[in-house]
């Protein structure tokens, strides 16, 4: 072979090898950043700064949701070396198996920080911080968690938990390990409360110890604190109401009529919101979720098929007055019930005949069956269906049969049947006033939430209008939605309310036959209406709705106690105690026995005995 030819072959081979080396160096240094990342991660660390969530206050400025520091142990698996597992789990006070499992899951990305232990206690954090230099690759990230000074309003406030895959897909703001509000106010006002994340680049040594900020913080991004909220709640009233409802099933809603602001909203059984904080959140949530009494079900806004019972009579009285089918002097005779052929509705023994105000005071079924049929058989309308449409229009003007729009997720609409509902079951024009006469006394197909019943009372207190019930009073640097300041007028004119209100006043302050005389509050003119709703699954439900004072009312309330019997026995005294507490901040000595009875009674034991 020609030597010159061999020389060219050698030159070509060396050239190819050189090109390969150059290409590899270019790939490593320019295209593939993993080596650069490895070096960078050994000297730098980006720490996400989670902002403190906005605080939540009651209407008087009392903290009802605060923040406290929490500490998460983070790990960068690519920096871990010579790990003394036994020593670290001893400091963390967790079992070795749990630690190893979590560390193994975090090793998928050598350079990405992963949480190994969340929400370490302050004392554990102190001990760990003193020894952290012994564990390269680990560091502590500080964040805040919720703290609840009052052990009440759990169903209203909601809770905070780590985001899941769905949360991240729905909002790109969230990344793994971020927290998000769930349920209640925390969820409803999440975007205001959460603030905006920031972060800082820190320089660390080979042991993972922070030595300072990169470029003196030049690349840092400050976090923005969440906005604080002042709620409409009176937390002391809320707490008192939950105590009164202890060992009972039901709900309470109290509203300021002049604004629609919710003073208290109670669903019983209730729970301490501190149960859903920290490392016990998951297990406690599962306990609440599996509880057969459903403490996570907000009866006040989600229980939309509660029959209102006799409390609904006041609305039927207003509609009859507005339609001029009766006057306040209209009288009806009652002989222990209402009779129409073979049809009979029971009533209790009372004075007879009675007029409108007396019918409310004595809660006469005969009176309301009579006037309801008079409404639907009104010759002014072509047929019962047309008259029913008018009746329904009046009823729904009070916010019944649809969601009121409270600033909580999960509100249900209740049920005021449309004519088509009865057409479906009985045939078009084949149902009569007697077919649906149970609506006269708040039974049958009607369903209302306790929130709607309280709002009905607020509308009566206002003599014909209401504001959308709401929990937000003010939000930092934000204008409150105008829908909470918009007045909703009912179809009943103001003058029709006076005889009905007089009847409600007599329920509490009237003579013989008044259904709630014993709950009268010294010095306070309270107007109310008892209700006892039939329950096919057990004992009747106890209901009471009221407002006070009679003139310039400051509070309207609805109380619903399930399976408790008469409205005057349980719901009425509970309502009167809350009204007195709100208006006077105390309970009159003559009524302490009522308070003690309500606080000490256990109706759950009664249910167990019945079963």
Q: Would you kindly provide a written description of the structure presented here, covering whatever features stand out?
A:
This protein is 36% helix and 19% strand. It has 611 residues and is α+β, with helices and mostly antiparallel strands. It has two domains: 50-197 and 220-231, Penicillin-binding protein 2a (Domain 2) (Alpha-Beta Complex); 235-285 and 299-585, Beta-lactamase, CATH 3.40.710. The strands form six sheets. Strands 2, 3, 4, 5, 10 and 16 form a six-stranded mixed β-sheet that branches. Helix 10 packs antiparallel against helix 20 (571-584).
**Total domain modules:** 2
What is the averaged pLDDT score? Answer: 88
Number of helices: 22
> Mind telling me the CATH class of the largest domain?
Alpha Beta
- Indicate the low-confidence ranges by residue numbers: 32-41
Give a brief description.
This protein is of the alpha+beta class and 611 residues long. It folds into two domains: 50-197 and 220-231, Penicillin-binding protein 2a (Domain 2) (Alpha-Beta Complex); 235-285 and 299-585, Beta-lactamase, CATH 3.40.710.10.
């Amino acid at each position: 072979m020609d030597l010159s030819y061999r020389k060219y072959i050698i030159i070509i081979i060396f050239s190819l090898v050189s090109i390969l080396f150059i290409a590899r160096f270019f790939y490593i240094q320019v295209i593939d950043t993993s080596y650069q990342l490895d070096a960078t991660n050994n000297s730098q660390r980006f720490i996400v700064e989670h902002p403190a969530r906005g605080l939540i206050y009651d209407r008087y400025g009392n903290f009802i949701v605060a923040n406290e520091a929490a500490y998460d142990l983070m790990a960068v698996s690519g920096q871990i070396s010579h790990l003394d597992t036994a020593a670290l789990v001893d400091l963390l006070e967790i079992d070795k198996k749990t630690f190893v499992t979590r560390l193994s899951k975090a090793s998928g990305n050598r350079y990405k920080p992963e949480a190994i232990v969340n929400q370490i206690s302050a004392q554990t954090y102190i001990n760990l911080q003193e020894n952290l230099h012994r564990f390269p690759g680990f560091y502590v990230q500080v964040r805040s968690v919720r703290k609840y000074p009052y052990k009440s309003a759990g169903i209203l406030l909601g809770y905070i938990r780590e985001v899941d895959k769905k949360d991240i897909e729905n909002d790109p703001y969230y990344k793994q390990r971020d927290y998000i509000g769930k349920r209640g106010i925390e969820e409803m006002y999440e975007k205001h409360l959460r603030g905006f994340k920031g972060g800082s680049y820190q320089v660390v040594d080979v042991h993972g110890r922070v030595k300072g900020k990169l470029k003196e913080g030049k690349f840092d991004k400050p976090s923005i604190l969440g906005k604080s909220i002042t709620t409409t709640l009176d937390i002391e009233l809320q707490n008192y109401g939950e105590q009164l409802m202890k060992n009972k099933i039901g709900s309470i809603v109290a509203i300021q009529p002049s604004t629609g602001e919710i003073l208290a909203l109670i669903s019983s059984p209730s729970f301490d919101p501190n149960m859903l904080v920290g490392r016990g959140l998951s297990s406690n949530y599962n306990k609440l979720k599996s509880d057969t009494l459903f403490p996570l079900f907000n009866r006040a806004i989600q229980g939309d098929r509660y029959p209102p019972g006799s409390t609904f009579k006041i609305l039927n009285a207003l509609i009859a007055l507005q339609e001029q089918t009766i006057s306040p002097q209209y009288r009806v005779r009652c002989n222990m019930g209402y009779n129409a052929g073979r049809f009979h509705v029971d009533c209790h023994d009372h004075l007879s005949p009675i007029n409108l105000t007396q019918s409310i005071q004595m809660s006469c079924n005969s009176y309301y069956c009579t006037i309801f049929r008079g409404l639907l058989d009104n010759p002014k309308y072509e047929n019962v269906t047309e008259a029913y449409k008018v009746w329904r229009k009046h009823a729904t003007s009070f916010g019944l049969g649809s969601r009121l729009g409270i600033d909580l997720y999960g509100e249900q609409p209740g049920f005021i049947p449309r004519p088509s509902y009865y057409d479906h079951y009985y045939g078009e024009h084949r149902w009569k006033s007697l077919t649906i006469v149970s609506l006269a006394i708040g039974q049958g197909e009607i369903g209302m939430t306790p929130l709607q019943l309280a709002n009905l009372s607020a509308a009566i207190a206002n003599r014909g209008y209401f504001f959308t019930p709401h929990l937000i009073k003010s939000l930092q640097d934000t204008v409150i939605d105008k829908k909470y300041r918009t007045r909703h007028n009912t179809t009943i004119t103001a003058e029709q309310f006076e005889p009905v209100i007089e009847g409600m006043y007599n329920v509490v302050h009237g003579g013989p036959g008044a259904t709630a005389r014993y709950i009268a509050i010294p010095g306070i003119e309270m107007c109310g209406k008892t209700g006892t709703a039939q329950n096919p699954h057990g004992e009747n439900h106890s209901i009471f709705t009221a407002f006070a004072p009679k003139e310039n009312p400051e509070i309207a309330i609805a109380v619903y106690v399930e399976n408790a019997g008469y409205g005057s026995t349980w719901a009425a005294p509970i309502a009167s105690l809350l009204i007195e507490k709100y208006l006077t901040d105390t309970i009159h000595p003559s009524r302490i026995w009522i308070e003690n009875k309500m606080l000490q009674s256990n109706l759950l034991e009664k249910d167990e005995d019945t079963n």
